[in-house]
Amino acid sequence: MGRAGCCCRGAERLVSPSLVRRFRPLLLLIIAVCCGAQLGQCQVATPHCHIQKCNTDFVSLTSHLSPAVDGLHTEFCKALRSYSACTQKTAKSCRGDLIFHAAMLGITDLMSQRNCSRDGPTSSTRPEVQHEPCNYHSRTQHAHTHSHAHAPGHSHTRPVYLFCGLFGDPHLRTFKDSFQTCKVEGAWPLIDNDYLSVQVTNVPVVPGSSATATNKITIIFKPYEGCTDQRVYQAVTDNLPAAFDDGTVSSGEPIHISAGAKGATGKVRALWISERSPGHHVELYAGYIGVTVIVRQLGRYLTMAVRIPEELAQAYDSTQDLQLCLNGCPGGERIDKAGHLPLPLSPPPLGLQLQQLRRPSYSSQTQESPYGATQVFSVEGAKQRCREQLEVQDIYFHSCVFDLLTTGDANFTVAAYSAQKDMESLHPHQGRWRIYPRGSAISTLHSDSQHIKQLSLLLLCFLSVVL
């Protein structure tokens, strides 16, 4: 094995063999901890280890998979088996490489999560992707290949995706993963760029409270030359259509999609709508710009989640700078204070209690409780109710508690749970999924764990040169 390299050069002069033997068990433990941290800051390099190629191939095999298509599980498992086979081929020369060991642990974990068998078909390491101008993935991959063919040494980076979500009282998760709770009564733009416009309308939830929630969402897919004309989608409470305003369910030229039924490929239009649960869950896919939007109705109010390429989200001018997903809510509209969400300790206003007598009752197969099922929650009662849906006490859990205390509407529990699941489905970076409110015990523990990882990385740099 070649000489190891690390970010702490010269450390080998400070380490004696006896000291290494004493701390070897600790070193192995540190390696396990660091596998989930930022391995790029310190790694052990070996001259013939090709783990980076395995990583690149796996990203290539999975980056174009879409949750909108049947057969995603099959294709992902095939890619995982190919990834595993690639790591096994280079295992001997990668024994001292930390990224290799992290990849092995990651493969095992993903196979377990996805219930993938070790034996079975694998994906081709060089999937054939047809160049289609109205397929964003194909278009960007073609640009990537073209840049390498005509400009050796030039690195064309893969597209970066952003996530934004709105739900509940309302709670906003911006493109920068800033989590805010706002009043924003009336109509407000979430996204407004050259390709997509999303506007929401929020109305008061209960008299005497500043709490608002979304009862209308308008989405405009702007015209894209050669791919699609403009299409408008509008949802309001009790009317979540499975079509655009003009009655169509798709638009534009056919494009290829991967992972069709039984692992096959198929075609859809450049822009299309999928109704997952009539009247309650609709998903919109704009393949020509790489955008996915999920809209739900839970109780009397709507939630929204969107994934969009960063380069398109940044395509706007100075007249379009008021975008909540981009810049967050204006300071005067914020309810939370720098990430801390204060819980109301007193009972909700009298108007809430009177609403129990005034509201009609409806039933729904997807609602946790009918529209009129409001009640006055205590803090502990709200936490207990939210724990039934949300196991981890992150910001989604705290938002759920806040909404129950503020509105008394148990449907907000399901809204928080669904918003979290939509985020996990669309957010491109799993390491950023969890957000904890500032000042909470969990947030403190999370912060401490980050410091521990950083210290572990430093110690790993010090000791790994002797592997």
TrEMBL record:
UniProt KW Metal-binding keyword: no
Residues passing through the membrane, by range: none
Keyword Lipoprotein: yes
Subcellular location(s) of the protein: Cell membrane
Annotated membrane topology: Lipid-anchor; GPI-anchor
Domain Repulsive guidance molecule C-terminal: 161-428
Single GO MF annotation: coreceptor activity
InterPro entries: RGM, RGM_C, RGM_N
Domain of life assignment: Eukaryota
Record's GO cellular component terms: plasma membrane; side of membrane
UniProt record, GO biological process: BMP signaling pathway; positive regulation of macromolecule metabolic process; regulation of primary metabolic process
Family label: Belongs to the repulsive guidance molecule (RGM) family.
UniProt-listed PANTHER family: REPULSIVE GUIDANCE MOLECULE B, RGM DOMAIN FAMILY MEMBER DRAG-1
Protein name, per record: RGM domain family member B
